Amino acid sequence: MQKIHRSLLITLLVSSVSFSAAAKDVTVMISGGFKAALEKLAPQFEAKSGDKIILISGPSMGRTPQAIPARLARGEKADVVIMVGDALKNLEKDNWLQPGSRVELADSSIGMVVKEGEPKLNIKTDADLRNALLQAKSIAYSDSASGRYVSSQLFKKLGIEDQVKTKAHRVERIPVASEVAKGTYAVGFQQVSELLPVPGVTFVGELPEDVQYVTRFAGAVTAKATNGHEGKALLNFLSSAEAQDTVRATGLRSVTAERPVKQHDTVQ
After folding, report:
1. CA angle (179 as vertex; 156, 200 as ends), nearest 5
2. Residues 23-37: tens digit of each pLDDT
3. Where are the transmembrane segments (predicted)?
């Protein structure tokens, strides 16, 4: 009987060691738009695969050293990158990614917030949005895809570029909503999925559809990935049907065949 127990114990120990040895750390460099979704979905993937996800945050673009292209350029390691689709194209052109590994993940629209406790503005129509921005004491936008659109196109479309020039400010690296929550700026624009997780603000709503800008988020395996197979499995899970309820709950839109990548993904 003792021999049986000893044999069973050895078998269990060997199995445990084998499982531990097989488990991999999947390092993911990710920009803010898809981060909330991944944080909610990570436990499901880890439970199913036995692998562990390690997140490294940074903007998809911009001049900050924390930006994903800058991180890769100075030799930081990652198995997967998840970021704005057009910035991902640039990494592919520069041979930072494994060919054919791109996976479409979600679409993200732009929204607006005000500090919690402040009156909730009306931005349902272009005229409402124009009036709200003219009345606002200050305006904040990000240094990534949504902010580039707001600063270079939205104000022009609304015919208020000159009027808001001195009160519109770019926020680098950190969430725009965090600055609005502190009262630094009166209103803030960013992708909805980046606004919703931040406490201390009230979500006003999305931009009117005719001046809306939708950013495609996608992921790919890096050319120098240590655990590329596991990284691709993660991307496939994040794009799967079982992940979509969580994706949408974080303010993103599911990618569908009826919504292909169009100009939304290229206005940078």
Report:
1. 115
2. 899 999 999 889 999
3. none
